[in-house]
């Protein structure tokens, strides 16, 4: 081989090596989660254990309260959100093109907590109840809990206050600004020792509701099909990691760190609650999305909600492909 040809050959190999290195660079993706709750754990663990990177994703996870997260998605500032079905409905009745491809929480798993002086529903008449963002899952949980107690806010002079996120609602309950509120069990357990009581455990009531799922705009999915597939696969793999008994200690430490739980019994309860509620195959629930639409229309949260079809708010193709290809099954072998 001549010196010139040798130079071109070696140079070509270097170019291929460099190109391969560039191709291997993970794609940076901003993923917003709309609550601080144990159902975010599949995303946290996928980042911490390098699962996202294995699928070519450099995931930046950021907490943005769900209503604002959806606004950021509408503005094109955030491409992926772990948010509730209510926000998908609100966005789509406003002309959005969003769809949920995976479901990480398909029931209303909230505690309706009250201060020590409130013994039951009758004691809440004329009192203040802290809810989340007006159309969030926490607010829907508050409506369902009040229904369960036989209470009607307008008739019973109950003031509903849009307090915001979990820390704000817990702070309002502790300070006495509200007499009751809704909190996820893993967070609510922190106040039980102070005499606060659970009036309604919605998890035990098995209320079907699409509380949390992985959401994209259809236009972004169309432009980034491989990226969406990779994010969905990594999330499903993170879900399987959480469910494997051998990973319990790692998952508990992750929950403690991300939920700021310092006591082992709190981490254990958060872990057990997560395992019970997180679907092993994280697919959205048609029944749960139907419940979202029904409750939003019933409580006047979104009068246009009833115009939507539940099946059009979900994209079940990923779950079908993962099931048919054996991908879901492979995660538990």
Describe the structure.
The protein has 333 residues and is α/β, with parallel strands linked by helices. The chain is built from 16 helices and ten strands.
Strand order of the largest sheet: 2-1-3-10-4
Helix run count = 16
Largest sheet: 5 strands, mixed
Radius of gyration, in Å, reads: 22 Å
Quick one: overall form? globular
Roughly what percent helix? Answer: 40-55%
Give the percentage of residues in beta strands.
Answer: 15-25%
What pattern of helices and strands is seen along the backbone? HEHHEHEHEEEHEHEHEHEHHHHHHH
Catalogue the unreliable spans: 1-22
> For the residues shown, what is the average pLDDT?
91
User: What structural class is derived from the secondary structure elements?
Assistant: alpha/beta
Q: How many distinct beta strands?
A: 10
Oligomer: single chain
Q: Report the end-to-end length measured between terminal Cα atoms.
A: 51 Å
SSE layout:
Layout: H1 3-24, E1 27-33, H2 41-48, H3 51-54, E2 57-63, H4 66-74, E3 80-83, H5 85-93, E4 98-107, E5 111-114, E6 128-131, H6 137-148, E7 159-162, H7 166-175, E8 180-183, H8 185-192, E9 197-201, H9 202-205, E10 208-217, H10 218-223, H11 225-243, H12 248-259, H13 264-277, H14 286-298, H15 317-324, H16 327-330
Parallel strand pairs: 1-2, 1-3, 6-7, 6-8
Antiparallel strand pairs: 3-10, 4-10, 5-8, 5-9
Helix pairs in contact: 2-11, 2-12, 8-13, 12-13
